[in-house]
Design brief:
Chain lengths: 385, 385
């Protein structure tokens, strides 16, 4: 990593693509290569855009999980998000892939909403508000179309009694120096956040089969620790499918910050807002004037609209290639590109808007009384040792 | 403290009475003096032997709590014990005083059984067994005669959802360096034990009035931390009533270890066992031979039987004085003293044995559906800020 780059679940700084390569070495994970994609495709027929375009670019043991799957052994999916009440389009990414994998592999999905994490990390100050907002986020996530009988969405503080039955074991098997080495804890770290490590690991023990975790690569440290203790407790080591980080509107390798509208498209944004934000803020690879643009052409590689089209919103490879070419040769203007991108993003969010009512009506199944959820409210950890 | 003396909740070493004096300075607590005892007596008429003989020898703010009580402000009592399945007579001491205070001040009592603590401290290895045994210990504690409608006994892993609503706040307000300074945590400390600090503090917020905590002085560090954060969360600073440590059978300032029969009288021991253990193991202040004893007399100050008679089993001051005198002048032999002590201990334990059936029948009230317990299963922390 470049000296200024940092990656813990609470501090993420990536400066360029090389940093992503170095993370692979640093964490000891594998690249998602065409061999793995072919292996996936054997079961799924097609490839999700997030895999095809390699926004999920690294993994741990997913090849082994697929080998087992071929022998008839199922796996389960687990992901999550610390609620804050403001979700942007980047936040959806792990859920989108998870939903697709659920469908293709008929897998149970567990979604953790750790309402205490950001409060303990001192990233938010009003816990009661966060807790309230967690239900809203649960609805947004559900609206992606998860199976309400094969998906369990839980808020940590609600589900803590069940989680605790395993956290008692997990938190015994991790000592402070290990946690410190992995997460960079300091004297200032709250004793809550130190313990939280165990709570993010617990759901990997919800079933005896392989846990597969689609998530940002910054979350990998939790699951490295999981792999140190899983077999000792009689469970399987976690497999991760790891994504890069999305770009904020301000340009390559900037962040979307839900609290700064000039950087982000929120799930709640309507079409007008999306369009205005992109027109006004989205960093462009185009030239300063229309005249120059038509003459010299633009650079899609550093353009935020192209980033989002590539990663998520333009599934059609041919169409994407055409757009890139016409941008490079100056026939596609920045204004046109922005308009198109706003339309594509809106098209995607429109599906969520339409599903929100369904999600609201079915939330009780995801959280409390669907087939999987009702089983999980009786779940209790049993170490298999 | 002498250099070798250590006091944290997990490491206790006291070499002599001076160490107790130094602890008072080190912790910044106050001595329980005759003024305070008089102040207590105003409300209680008599004084419990554990106070009168000053085995509870230090306190924090109990004088202020009594001042408030005189103005009509109630307080509540809180104590507890990490279950291990083997309780010795020393373990009863905080509960005995707590029960007496409940009766005299008509106070609610909260008793925490943290089933995870010793597992996280790596003092026990079989968590499931400990959890099972916790119910047995709850019965023993209840058998001391607590009021089943004013006493709530809870096992942490059962009651965690309620505890967690406050632990979220407590664990945010304590950082690692503070916890380390107070408890001497190292890199080897499990992340569970670090978090546990918050769980022992939580019950001090069960009511808005003063929490009063009778406990061994080794537990004071938790409540010093509590005092740093209580008012910030809108609650009252904890008051502690602090005891010395009991002597094991092997002699002055040794420990009772439930796992070593030669050091300890267990609650389960029958009269024959008690007598045999005392005869065989109890360190004596008498002379090596009966002849010498009759000639030179014994020393009650270093005698384990006298320790226990003074602290708990001989309430009659006059009788105790007579015993001491006749031991010093050699007319009371070690054999007679041991026999008498065994009888007194047995007399005390017989009350517990007799009450066990009642405790068993009423345990549900203490734990689940008595007046206080049923209220507490609906309790949720509300920071008053």
């Amino acid at each position: 990593m470049s000296k200024k780059s940092k990656v813990t679940p609470w501090e993420v700084e990536i400066k360029d693509e090389n940093d992503y390569e170095r993370l692979i070495e640093l964490f000891g994970v594998s690249k998602i290569d065409d061999n793995l994609l072919e292996k996936i495709k054997k079961h799924t027929n097609d490839l999700h855009i997030l895999l095809k375009r390699k926004f999920f670019y690294a993994h741990r043991d997913f090849d082994k999980v697929l080998d087992s799957f071929e022998k008839g052994e199922k796996f389960f999916l687990y992901t999550g998000r610390a609620p804050s009440g403001k979700m942007h389009i980047g936040h959806l990414i792990p859920f989108i892939l998870t939903k697709w994998l659920q469908e293709k592999f008929d897998a149970n999905v567990y979604i953790q909403l750790p309402d205490e994490e950001k409060f303990w990390a001192k990233k938010v100050n009003d816990y009661e508000k966060i807790k309230e907002l967690a239900y809203y986020e649960a609805k947004i996530i559900a609206s992606l179309g998860f199976d309400p009988n094969k998906t369990f969405i839980f808020i940590n503080s609600e589900y803590i009694k069940n989680l605790y039955s395993a956290a008692i074991y997990v938190a015994r098997n991790i000592n402070f120096s290990t946690a410190k080495a992995v997460f960079g804890f300091t004297g200032e770290t709250t004793i809550g956040l130190i313990f939280y490590v165990s709570l993010q690991i617990v759901p990997t023990f919800f079933e005896n089969s392989y846990p597969v975790i689609p998530c940002g690569i910054d979350q990998d440290p939790y699951f490295r620790l999981q792999r140190d203790i899983a077999e000792k407790l009689g469970y399987k080591k976690a497999s991760t499918i790891l994504s890069k980080f999305v770009w904020g509107l301000k340009g390559p390798y900037t962040k979307m910050s839900a609290s700064d509208p000039s950087t982000t498209i929120l799930i709640d944004d309507d079409f007008e807002t999306i369009k205005q934000k992109i027109m006004k803020y989205a960093f462009s690879g185009g030239q300063p004037t229309l005249e120059l643009h038509k003459k010299l052409g633009g650079n899609p590689d550093i353009d935020v609209c192209f980033f989002w089209l590539r990663v998520l919103f333009e599934e059609n490879d041919k169409k994407l290639k055409e757009l890139e070419e016409s941008y490079r040769n100056g026939t596609l203007t920045t204004g046109e590109l922005k308009e198109y991108t706003a339309l594509k993003i809106n098209e995607f969010l429109e599906k969520i808007r339409k599903n929100m009512k369904w999600a609201e009506n079915n939330l009780h199944k995801f959280m409390y009384d669907g087939k999987l959820a009702s089983e999980m409210w009786n779940w209790k950890f049993e170490p298999k040792v």
